[in-house]
């Protein structure tokens, strides 16, 4: 029986994945919006949230690649009707990744001051960054656990329960942000920036608890660790290593973007924080369709349905471009109100408005890059993803950023370089995909 790739079925997978995907940027955007409006030192607090979020995103993206690897392997075995052979793999993967997360905490907590100096943070911004990070980092293992469980659900062609879990976490974070940052007179003293950090950690813990519950109650995947390791653990580790190298390249991009913005001063890093978090939000909205590509491509590849795989990629390109244009249009209509949600500082708003149009213009290009990222992850073609991103980062983004910075473009330099980086990520993947699967579809 052929795999269903109708728009209705794609949306059935993509819409819940979209809702689940936006939870992470909403956590950061909530922190940014609420912290950006506190009574004292709002600009410095907002800058600190931006710097720490960039660093935590790096850690999560490096180790959170388990989701893609687990999803790829599970979906391929679902397509081949051999799920029983890898049922113990997710628990083993979760054990490996959560163990690494504990080591990350031990390795970064004492050196937080040094780490954020590397991001050009100093003075009050540095102090706030350290305080915020030393609380937020304890949510790290819970986040990685949840991400890995989401990978198992995706492999099983199920995005509904991850959506429920993400909604629970997001609502919890928003409510606790307001309560802990601003306080409740007579009951809870305002905790300002630290309150935002505590809110995030509690939300991450709750998401991990519900992830375990739904996986055990709604699937055949156990969480009990068993040995020996599954035969696919080697392929899983190779995928992770390729994605690890790829993510280092990704975070070189984010590091340079954040470091350059910080070097321009508090006003610029605050404006950059708003712009980059809205960029992340757009990326995670598209991630719903990238997730559908990930889920379905793995199943189609496992079932050797190559012609349907090509049809799926063509459909997703069309849907992705439409979504990217819609995001850009909505952002254009809300251009000025969006900035004022995060800050009332006219200098910060001026710099934000100078670059937000670039963020909006690149949205259709982002959709193509992110959707093909998802497809290649579903196929398990992590080596190709690694090589393309290395080239995009070191041959496109970094040289362009340094060149435009030398021309004093400041934040515009960062976002123009990001646009070219996105183009260099997306279009080579389309060419590689077609080169591999058009011949296979003719044989098939």
TrEMBL record:
Its subcellular locations are: Cell membrane
Q: Which CDD domains match?
A: MATE_DinF_like (cd13136)
Q: How does it sit in the membrane?
A: Multi-pass membrane protein
Q: Which InterPro entries match?
A: DinF-like, MATE_fam, MATE_MdtK, MdtK-like
Family designation = Belongs to the multi antimicrobial extrusion (MATE) (TC 2.A.66.1) family.
Query: Per its UniProt record, what Pfam families does this chain match?
Result: MatE (PF01554)
- The transmembrane segments are 42-63, 93-112, 132-153, 160-184, 196-216, 236-257, 269-296, 316-336, 356-376, 388-405, 411-433
Keywords (alphabetical) are: Antiport, Cell membrane, Ion transport, Membrane, Transmembrane, Transmembrane helix, Transport
Q: What is this protein called?
A: Multidrug-efflux transporter
